[in-house]
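Model the whole thing, not chain by chain.
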Amino acid sequence: MSVDSAAIEVRNLTKRYDGLIAVDAISFEVRKGEFFGFLGPNGAGKTTTVRMLTGVIKANSGTALVMGSRAGSLKAKQVAGVVPEMANAYNDLSSWDNLMLMAELYGVASGKAKQRSESLLRNLGLLERKDSLVKTYSKGMKQRLILGMALISDPQILFLDEPTTGLDVQSARLIKDMLRSLNGGGKTIFLTTHDMDEANQLCDRVAIINKGKMVAIDAPEKLRMATSGRHSVEVSFSDSVNLETLAQLPGVNEVQKVGDKYRLYTESPGELVVGLVNHSCMVGLKIVSLNILAPSLEDAFVALTEKEDEHA
Amino acid sequence: MPETAFVWQQMRRSLAIARKDIRIYYSKGPVVIFGILFPVFLFLSFTIGRQMSVDFMIPGLLGMILFFTATSISPIVVPWEAQARTLERLMSCPVRLETIIIGDILASFTFGTAISLVPIIIGIALGVTVSSPVIFALAVILAALCFASLGNVFSIPPTNLPATVNMIASVVKFPVVFISGIFIPLDQLPNWGQAIAYISPLTYFTDIARSCIQGEGHLPLALDFVVLIAFTVLFLVVAMKLHQRTMPRRI
């Protein structure tokens, strides 16, 4: 990737806390205009990485460039919008005043700031409450405002750390739709999440980090397909069935009960379907529904992080 | 960007931070009332029943109020912001750490200077005259900046509990009030008392105020100003250097 096309370039970035390695010499690149997902279990090093990229903390070693400038430099901060994990707006100010404060801190001219604030508040569904103190807002409204605060400077790149965690469905959907549209407009987006569906729906590429190390980086579809042994057959019967009986069918690696259905993991789904039909005929069970499922991104995530844990 | 344009840009952002601090932290009724009432009552409890002239009392009262108000909120702004989870957002903005510190100090300076008008007005109403108003005003401004910077130094330990920082600040603030020539004039202190008094920045402001109101101070005015400036520079440098180390540990 040429330097000009890279929005983020990370080389051997390392962060240690009191002898523990939180981020262990990770390297990756994000292209300009890309929607990049950063996945990992809790404590994997996602937030530490974002904090190094946004200049909140310093790395112990390695380098990181954001839009060609050293991460943490004022130049890099000037072109970035940030939604930190669990961040708050100022509760004792109105959403309008929060946006005006951010505009001043990013050096946005007053006229432009007012114009943008109005448009952002309208798009975020907050215009009617623009003069209310933020402490009277719901969690979803606050998070929408924080996204607005990150966008007030019309940044080239947006860093979002778990922006939809714990939000109501409407707010989460509004934020996701807005991110899609921002990315469509050319903004680079770096999103950390542990919501696999979210990553699958939004991201062009995802990186998976576990215990501070990069485990994989690819398009969500490619990661899913590379996960062998995680195909599954989802079946529901007219009557309840013993899990152990299903586990003994030929080719079944694992059985899970998912609501009123059973999910059987296998490497050969076709043969398993035949086995299931034969079994149900034999014991006089009626099959209500039957689906063959390709591995999900979640399956890929679990497989990749478990493999890494075994190696460790 | 040329250096002057950069400094001007960061200065404007400091002012935005100061305005935010004043609106959020300083404009609350209890903060204003506590800033005035607490030092007034403390002062009265030590002066009532003692034969003291108004000319002696007003410089002391002014010194106490300025010292307490300028150091009242500045120690806890940073821990408050960390606890309220607004600090990380602020740190990811295109502002230097020094810009944040100066903004916080400016807010404290403004608050201290504004509240100091209360004892000044009380003094004028009681017939006190200020012999050199310009020198007096310069001293109030310099002392407010010095005490606001000291208040910011108190917030250096990387704790996010305002109560802990307040405790640290109180451990320093109360002894300072008693050794700074507010209740007992410097020339009435024993030598060892005077030696301790000279390590307090409040001593030099009180001395300037006494010089302007009572007509004579214990030390030469120029020396008072030089030492106050030196303390201010020291507190500013310490705040900026040490916050660089501790600020990321709050996140």
